[in-house]
Design goal:
Fumarate Reductase Iron-sulfur Protein, Chain B, domain 2; 5-stranded mixed sheet; binds FE2/S2 (inorganic) cluster; about 230 residues; 3 domains
Length: about 230
């Protein structure tokens, strides 16, 4: 069925006016307008955080953030893609650090500058309570920091808006690592799967995957079982 005029919206991609179908996501609308994603796109399913985008609506001062693969275009959107958000990559040895507040302060001393302004929470396209998990980490409540940050994709939009120049997604990642290593520990399923791997239960399957051609791998990937847990 062909589209009529009402099925289109006008958006601005990197400053250029474009008329695009109204039912597209930002990512698809950008492709419709002729952009090719070499960076700034990954899973296309809202899981990887690679497609962070900022936009303003015409007539509004508010800078908003979204995942381009999830957010549908709206009339008057002024869009810019942020295919990469620069941040310092801190390294640590999980076996050598302790699960307490000092660890966060040692590796990320900037969290002490948190103003509790909540800008990070407002910037999160996943509606995660970012400020709350940063504050929990600061108090040493690792369990809560891990729980609140669990759905973080690391898209970087919180870090881009933080006036104290904190990179919250790094804090959440450390909290989840500490929690699973020192507080919760590996689950029964993980332990038994590790045993199975050690015993060679999957050797044959892994070998056949390593030797499979691309077409077979695509077919297998598309027909894989997903667990909704
Ligand atoms: S491309 Fe992976 S979250 Fe959008």
């Amino acid at each position: 069925m062909s589209k009529n005029n009402n099925d289109f919206v006008t958006i601005y991609v990197m400053g250029k006016k474009q008329k695009v179908p109204a039912d597209l996501t930002i990512m698809k609308a950008m492709e419709y307008a002729g952009h090719q994603f070499i960076r700034g796109s990954g899973c296309r399913g809202g899981f990887c955080g690679a497609c962070a985008t900022v936009y303003r609506m015409r007539g509004s001062y508010k800078l908003q953030g979204a995942l381009a693969c999830q957010k549908q275009v709206e009339e008057g959107m002024i869009i810019a893609q942020i295919p990469f958000s620069p941040s310092e990559k801190i390294t640590y040895k999980l076996n050598e650090i302790k699960a307490n507040a000092n660890t966060f302060l040692e590796y990320f001393p900037e969290i002490a500058r948190c103003l509790s302004c909540n800008t990070c929470t407002k910037a999160c396209p996943q509606d995660i309570m970012v400020m709350d998990y940063v504050q929990a980490a600061l108090r040493g409540d690792i369990k809560l920091a891990a729980k609140l940050s669990f759905d973080c994709l690391g898209c970087g939009l919180c870090a881009m808006r933080c006036p104290a120049e904190i990179v919250p997604y790094n804090i959440g990642q450390l909290a989840r690592r500490l929690e699973s290593k020192y507080i919760e520990g590996p689950t029964e399923q993980v332990l038994s799967r590790c045993e199975e791997i050690k015993e060679g239960k999957y050797d044959k399957e892994i070998e056949s995957l390593k030797n499979a051609d691309k077409e077979t791998l695509i077919k297998l990937y598309n027909s894989r079982e997903m667990k909704n847990e």
